[in-house]
Structures are given as structure tokens and as C-alpha cells.
Amino acid sequence: MHISEILSANKVHFSFEFFPPKTTEASNALFETIKELSPIQPSFVSVTYGAGGSNRHFTEDLVVRLTRETSLNVVAHLTAINAGREEIRHQMDRYVNAGIQNVLALRGDPPKNGVSGIKASPDGFSHASDLVAFIKKNYPGIGVGVAGFPEGHPETPNRLKEMAYLKAKVDEGADYICTQLFFDNHDFYDFRERCQIAGIKIPILAGIMPIQTTQSLNRIAELALGSHIPAKLLRAIQRAENDEAIEKVGTHWATEQVFDLYDHEVSGIHFYTLNHSKATLKIHKTIGMSWG
Questions:
Q1: Counting runs of H as helices and runs of E as strands, what totals does the chain give?
Q2: Among 210, 228, 180, 190, which residue's Cα sits nearest to residue 284?
Q3: Active site residue 17
């Protein structure tokens, strides 16, 4: 189902994001975990890449398999970094042939190999807006999502330029925005208002990640450069005696975020699961509303 059709339904949507494991065995295990989510009917699930487009073949295989063997709506991540136009075309052809109707178009992060900066492939795309334009021109039936940054893009301290870059992606045909994770809802509300001022009228999904362990907190620091964790949340985590207690703190904080986002008429909640759906399912049960 096209993402525009999904998000046009008059309800608050929710979705999960997973990353592909590095082995076939682990990928099979993740497939079974994701399949278990089908009964609660998320609006969609998405599968990302590693930094620099690594694990690309695991992403492709997993999203194709999910599309063929489950009833889930699957959004495939597509990154411009380290990928030329023919490679992107090959990926898109495979997705279209498999019945995948939606992608999340990203510039992507550089690989963690000590190389600084981001360089496009000689025949590739320098910006996510270029990738969006390519997809919309060559695959007009595909739904396209793009990323947004409530706390500001770490590489673009000028927030006016940041919004101009986001508007460029929207003008090229993006259907919705999925934000980077955040822990203070005021950042999201400010970002949403900035979008309104810039004339951006497509749905904006709020990215939420329940902190589960000290390790996941460190992972967040790596994944979301520049992300700020409120002192109140840090203090609560610091008081926790073990990972079980940290999980309770993180799940409670995320649940309160979701309640507040509901009250402020958010279009949808996108959960960054780090491949663990337990906390998200707890939140789903606590909220006690019909999502999807």
C-alpha cells in the first residue's frame, strides 16, 4: 500500500524500525521477531542500512522476504552514500518487482572507518533531495519518505538552511517526514512549527526510542549525534541499579512522550527498536488505543 494512502487514514499511526543483522542466521531470527508484530497491525515497518550503506544486501533480502511472506507494509531504506545511479536503479527495480511500494530516501552516514566527510559516488547523488527527485521521476508510483531533525541536523547548525534543505526534499516529491529520535517533545513541536512556517504540509512522524540498557544509551549517542538527553532522564537512569531498572525508566519516559504526542495531534509515532520490540509492545499495551 502506498504510504500516502496509509497516512491518509484519520488515526495516529505507529511503525517500527529495524536494522539488518550481519549474518543470515541472525537475519532469519529477526524475520521471525518482526513477523510476530503482525497481529498488532503497525502502519508499516522499515529496515535500515548500516553506516555507509553497509549490510545493503541483508536489507534488500529482508524487506523482499517480509513483503512476500507477511501482510506488513514494508518501507525500505535507500541511501545515496556509496551508491551510484545504476546501483540505486538496480535496487529500485528489485523492490518494484517484489511489490515494495515505499522507500525512505536518505543521503546516509559515512562508514566508521576513520574517513571524515561524505562524498557522493561519481555518478551518484550529493543530497537526499537529488535521490528523491530520481525516484519520483523514474518510479512515480513509489512512496518516498525523508528524514527530519527536531534538534537540528548535526552538520547544519544554521537552522534556516536546515529547513531550506528539508523543503527542497519536500518540493521534489517527498510524501512524509520521519524524524530523528528525540527525548524532549518541545523540540518536536518547535520543529513541526518550523515546518509549517516553511510551507511544509506533509505528515510528520515522531521518532521515539525507548532506552533499555546502558548499552542502548551509548548506542543512541552514536546513532544520533547531537541528540540531547534531558538531565531529568539522565538522573533517573543514573539512579537505576541495573538494566532491568533502566528498562523501566526508559519505557516510562517514552510512554509519557507518546501520551503527550497524542494530545498534541501527532501524525504518527515511529519507534527505533534497535531490534528489540519488547519495550514498544509494552508502550502499545499501556496506551490502550487502536493504532495502525
A1: 11, 8
A2: 210
A3: yes
Instruction: Please compute Rg for the chain using Cα positions.
Output: 18
Q: Considering 17, 60, 151, 172, which one is annotated as catalytic?
A: 17
The tally of CA atoms less than 13 A away on the side-chain side of residue 69 is 12
Percentages helix, strand, coil for the chain (3-state, rounded to 5) are 45, 15, 40
Choosing among 3.40.710.10, 3.40.630.30, 3.50.50.60, 3.20.20.220, the CATH entry for 3-287 is 3.20.20.220
Alpha-carbon distance of 163 to 225, in angstroms, equals 18
Per-residue model confidence as pLDDT tens for the chain (292 residues): 999 999 998 888 999 998 887 888 887 888 887 877 777 889 999 998 755 555 677 788 889 988 998 889 999 999 888 778 999 999 999 999 999 999 999 987 655 554 445 555 567 788 899 999 999 999 999 999 999 999 987 777 778 888 999 999 999 999 999 999 999 999 999 999 999 999 999 999 999 999 988 877 777 766 655 578 899 999 999 999 898 999 999 999 999 999 999 999 999 999 998 887 778 888 888 887 555 4
At residue 146's C-alpha, the angle toward residues 68 and 191, to 5°, is: 135
| Alpha-carbon span 34 to 63, nearest angstrom | 11
DSSP state, residue 250: H
- The label of the residue with cell 545515496 reads 80
Can you give the residue ranges of every domain in the chain?
A: 3-287
